[in-house]
Design brief:
InterPro entries: 23S_rRNA_MeTrnsfrase_RlmA, Methyltransf_11, SAM-dependent_MTases_sf. This protein is of the alpha/beta class. The protein has one domain: Vaccinia Virus protein VP39 (Rossmann fold). It contains eight helices and eight strands. The chain starts with a helix and ends with a strand.
């Protein structure tokens, strides 16, 4: 069995660029939503002519599509991820544009007939509606309200849950931007962390979970978590996910 110090060192040193989660094999598990976002997105990409993936990360999910549209563009705001995405998407003819999560989209009105996004940090509905062509589609899997609250509360103490990421709020905001929501569904999904190194890597990678996280600042909570896992087994939390699909009227 690895000691707490060994797990701490491993968690500090693991690479966290991109959205490849293969490092977690054997260290953590997460249920997947029943709707299969990658499959749905791939089917829509196969029918699209001009498509945009927002906040693509390292392009891992987008690179899985079986057939690329004639025009394929992705945005990413973190330069290391953008470089990963360029390499991954080059075989598909994809182009990566560096744009921050809070920036307006650097594209003309009506540029795309399909816009997709998996787990966007922010969603600018008015910008999505603007760059969609009439009759175009927006498809997104998003993190719902209260996601990972068990882990967040363990690390930071009880935190309030707002409605900023509530599915019904997304519906209202999409509608206000002039889009018609045609699908909206949500699920709670079980996550298990088998050691404290997996928790550290997750919090370093998914930085908005505990925004102030560093190993040194949270060492006492990490040690308490290590002790709990050793005595009672995997730490269990639940992610909240929702799928939303919306169309711009023709």
């Amino acid at each position: 069995m690895a000691t707490f110090e060994e797990l701490l060192a491993e968690g500090r040193s693991a690479p966290v660029e991109g959205w490849d989660f293969s490092w977690f094999a054997g260290r953590a598990t997460e249920q997947r939503p029943s709707w299969g976002y990658a499959r749905l997105m791939g089917a829509r990409m196969a029918r699209a002519d001009r498509a945009l993936d927002l906040q693509t990360g390292g392009g891992e999910v987008l690179a899985s599509i079986p057939r690329a549209p004639r025009t394929l563009v992705a945005t990413e705001g973190w330069p290391p991820n953008a470089e990963l995405a360029r390499r991954r998407l080059a075989p598909l003819g994809g182009r990566v544009v560096e744009a921050g999560e809070d920036d307006d989209l650097p594209f003309p009105d009506g540029s795309f007939d399909l816009v997709v996004s998996r787990h966007p940090v922010t969603v600018h509905w008015s910008e999505i509606a603007r760059v969609l062509a009439p009759g175009g589609t927006y498809l997104s899997q998003q993190v719902g309200a209260g996601s990972l609250r068990e882990l967040i509360d363990f690390m930071m103490g009880p935190q309030p849950i707002g409605d900023a990421r509530a599915p019904e709020r997304a519906r209202r905001e999409a509608t206000s931007a002039g889009l018609t929501v045609t699908d909206l569904r949500s699920e709670a999904l079980r996550i298990e962390f088998f050691d404290v190194a997996a928790v550290i890597v997750f919090l370093r990678k998914v930085i908005w979970t505990v925004p102030s996280f560093t190993v040194d600042a949270y060492r006492p909570r990490l040690e308490a978590l290590h002790t709990q896992i050793e005595s009672t087994g995997p730490f269990v939390a639940h992610s909240q996910r929702f799928l939303i699909e919306a169309h711009k009227p023709s």
